């Protein structure tokens, strides 16, 4: 079974600083998709960024970027210029074909003013 | 507005009293799924459906039922809820073959079974 591991249950960062959230996964597939979802206190699941495994270029969405290391099966999320609104639970997820999204256990990010 | 609508948002019930959580999407998605979210465990899939009348078990199906009589609706049924089903539940949907773009999620249902 595919697994997604987030080894940091909690992280904190000073406002305006940069923080990196870690995610590793285990799969024997070569063509798959990776995601980071944000869950603020409102509970809504918001897609932050996605990466296609066959693309070597790391995805970027404004202040959010990923470091995708396919050989190492690592998919970390970097948040630059952290803002108070970034405080949330962040989930890493993996998908292949029509298979379900498999989620990690989440990292709770606190922003320190 | 394209959305997945879940109801209710909060629910407190007693052990053994049958309940249904509704889920409806207006995007003509074939794929629909239910997840539960628990602290330290992330989101785990309960059931999924790839089209009308086609449903299958996910990772944690025990104690749950689903049906897919119409494309837009995918209710989650707890026929005899127990306290270990206290959780945050999410319905999600996608076009089949487009899971690469992730899911559209409902806003979640916080269920407490006492």
Description:
- The complex is a heterodimer of chains A (about 110) and B (about 110).
- Chain A has no helices and twelve strands.
- Chain A has strands at about 5, 10-15, 20, 25, 35-40, 45-50, 60, 65-70, 75-80, 90-95, 100-105, 105-110.
- With about 110 residues, chain A is an all-beta fold.
- In chain A, strands 2, 5, 6, 10, 11 and 12 form a six-stranded mixed beta sheet that branches. In chain A, strands 3-9-8-7 form a four-stranded antiparallel beta sheet, with no helix packed on it. In chain A, strands 1-4 form a two-stranded antiparallel sheet.
- The N and C termini of chain A lie far apart (about 40 Å).
- Chain B has about 110 residues and is an all-beta fold.
- In chain B, about 0% of the residues lie in helices and about 50% in strands.
- Chain B contains no helices and eleven strands.
- Chain B has strands at about 5, 10-15, 20-25, 30-40, 40-50, 55, 65, 75-80, 85-95, 105, 110-114.
- In chain B, strands 2, 4, 5, 6, 9, 10 and 11 form a seven-stranded mixed beta sheet that branches. In chain B, strands 1-3-8-7 form a four-stranded antiparallel beta sheet, with no helix packed on it.
- The radius of gyration of chain B is 13 Å and the shape is globular.
- The model of chain B has no long low-confidence stretch (mean pLDDT about 95).
- At the A-B interface, strand 5, strand 6 and strand 10 of A face strand 4, strand 5 and strand 9 of B.
Largest sheet of chain A: 6 strands, mixed
What form of chain A results from the Cα inertia axes? globular
- Mean pLDDT of chain B equals 95
> Which assembly state applies to the chains in this document?
heterodimer
Order of helices and strands of chain A: EEEEEEEEEEEE
Distance between the termini of chain B: 36 Å
Rg of chain B, Cα atoms, Å:
13 Å
Structural class of chain B: mainly beta
Q: Average the pLDDT over all residues of chain A and give the rounded result.
A: 94
Biggest pleated-sheet summary of chain B: 7 strands, mixed
Total beta-strand segments of chain B: 11
Helix content bin of chain A: under 10%
Number of helices of chain B: 0
Low-confidence stretches of chain B: none
The portion of residues forming beta strands of chain A comes to over 45%
What's the SSE pattern of chain B?
EEEEEEEEEEE
Largest interface: A-B, 25 and 26 residues
Amount of helix of chain B: under 10%
Count of individual beta strands of chain A: 12
Strand content of chain B: over 45%
The secondary structure category of chain A is mainly beta
